Automatic annotation (TrEMBL):
InterPro entries given in the database record: FAD-dep_OxRdtase, FAD/NAD-bd_sf
Pfam families linked to this entry: DAO (PF01266)
Name of the protein described by the UniProt record: Glycine oxidase ThiO
Domain FAD dependent oxidoreductase residues, every copy: 6-380
Keyword terms of this UniProt record: Oxidoreductase
Domain of life of the native organism: Bacteria
């Protein structure tokens, strides 16, 4: 692939797409308004848990998640080797806890379909359950064990991805300030092969140089310079909805705040060996001695502050699940903005009406998990491969046009 790319957004999705495109021969520049990993990707618990996160039944979204989990061992190994940076990747499996006998039927239903889709899990009860996870509260009556699930330490993994990108030759420009595409200079025709894409950006406080650009290729402009490329890959997470007017597309992506906290655990014996889920949230033990407990879900616009209400709810059920936390206080509390879409599925793929624009946004609760498969699909479509029929479920244009454009 000889094309050049502008990747907009340096979260895990943008960095993964940039790396994969570069590895396939693309000339890649990544533009980030803040710092890479400074938003949702750096806030995440890092669980790679397609089964626990899809409790109802297997659909296209589950299959996407499952495929991405399958890519992780090789993907993380590659990132580790290329970056020469260490990060936690732990294949510890998970437990989904139930407190009531009445919940067992639902757990069995889940086990049933999960076993048909690659899980070798089973339901643990009584002595078997407490042998597997001795710290659990005795009010847990059973748990669904899924050995295939794993987790990464997201902040370190994102840092390693960034280093891998740089070493591979991706140009990364951070701290660009308010990077706002404000107009398509020549309307819809701009998207033709002849002119490609033109996105004008306003920028504050950076010394961006003009890139060397020749003729009829897409460009991203700022107050101080112009970036040009053959294609634009939009990876702006919860901010993607801002492109709606510019593209004349309905992009129902909105931020859902997740509040989360961590306990410091200095004792030799870790409080949990698996990732432990219940209907209210999850606990994940990290090798750096922190026990991460998440996460709330609320709508607060782009506000990433932590509220007493959000965290106290977490603390209540943490203690109910793990009595060892009764006297403990979290040492760290933070929040991030999950990019949620109207139907809960990401937007991945090329725009039909603007072939040089590729979308990779809206990964909601599973962007860490979904990053390798997203990078693969984006690079496949950049190489001109036609999407498989099942990918229709993630078509960026599936929500149609904004009401104003329909007049
Ligand atoms: C508390 C919490 C826990 C989570 N736990 C998990 C988990 O365990 N497992 C999991 O898989 N997922 C988890 N998630 C979800 C996951 O974090 C997200 O789905 C994922 O990080 C989304 O990645 P992204 O790159 O799309 O978005 P982001 O990480 O938000 O990155 C988008 C980037 O784009 C930049 N940007 C925005 N607009 C522009 C522009 N115009 N130009 C340039 N740059 C721009 C932003 O500054 C930002 O850096 C969690 C999320 C939260 C909040």
């Amino acid at each position: 692939m000889n094309d050049s790319f502008i990747v907009l957004g340096g979260g895990i999705v943008g960095l993964s797409c940039a790396l994969e495109l570069r590895l396939r021969g693309g000339d890649v520049t990544l533009l980030e308004s803040g710092v890479c990993g400074g938003q949702a990707s750096g806030a995440a618990a890092g669980m790679l848990a397609p089964y626990s996160e899809n409790p109802e039944s297997p659909d296209e979204f589950f299959h996407l998640c499952r495929e991405s989990l399958g890519l992780y061992p090789e993907w993380q190994r590659r990132v580790r080797e290329m970056s020469d940076k260490d990060f936690e990747y732990t294949e510890c499996g998970s437990l989904y806890a139930a407190y009531h006998e009445a919940d067992l039927l639902a757990l069995e239903g889940r086990l049933d379909w999960q076993r048909q889709h690659g899980s070798s899990g089973k339901i643990l009860r009584g002595a078997e359950l407490f042998k597997a996870e001795p710290g659990l509260s005795s009010s847990v009556v059973a748990a669904l064990w899924t050995p295939e699930e794993s987790h990464v330490y997201a902040p370190d993994f994102v840092e390693a991805l960034k280093t891998a990108c740089l070493k591979a030759g991706v140009v990364i420009r951070e701290r660009l300030g308010a990077v706002e595409p404000v107009e398509w200079e020549q309307g819809i025709e701009v998207w033709s092969a002849e002119y490609g894409i033109e996105v004008r950006l306003t920028e504050s406080g950076s010394d961006m140089q003009s890139a060397d650009h020749s003729g009829e290729v897409p460009s991203v402009k700022s107050g101080h310079g112009v970036f040009r490329a053959d294609r634009l890959v939009v990876c702006t997470g919860a901010w993607a909805g801002g492109l709606s007017d510019l593209l004349g597309l309905r992009l129902p992506v909105q931020p859902i705040r997740g509040q989360i906290c961590a306990y410091e655990w200095r004792e030799e014996r870790t409080p949990v060996k698996h990732m432990v889920f219940c209907s209210q949230g999850y606990l994940v033990q990290k090798t750096n001695g922190t026990l991460v407990c998440g996460a709330s879900e609320d709508v607060a616009g782009f506000d990433t502050s932590v509220t007493e209400r959000g965290i106290s709810r977490l603390l209540r059920w943490n203690k109910r699940l793990l009595p060892a936390l009764e006297q403990a206080e979290p040492f760290h509390r933070w929040a991030g903005l999950r990019p949620a879409t109207l139907d809960g599925r990401p937007l991945i793929g090329r725009l039909e009406r603007a072939e040089r624009v590729i979308f990779a946004v809206g990964h909601y609760r599973n962007g860490i998990l979904l990053s390798p498969v997203t990078a693969k699909l984006v690079a496949d479509c950049a190489e001109g491969r036609s999407p498989q029929p099942w990918q229709q479920a993630f078509r960026p244009e599936r929500f149609g046009m904004p009401a104003a454009s329909l007049r």
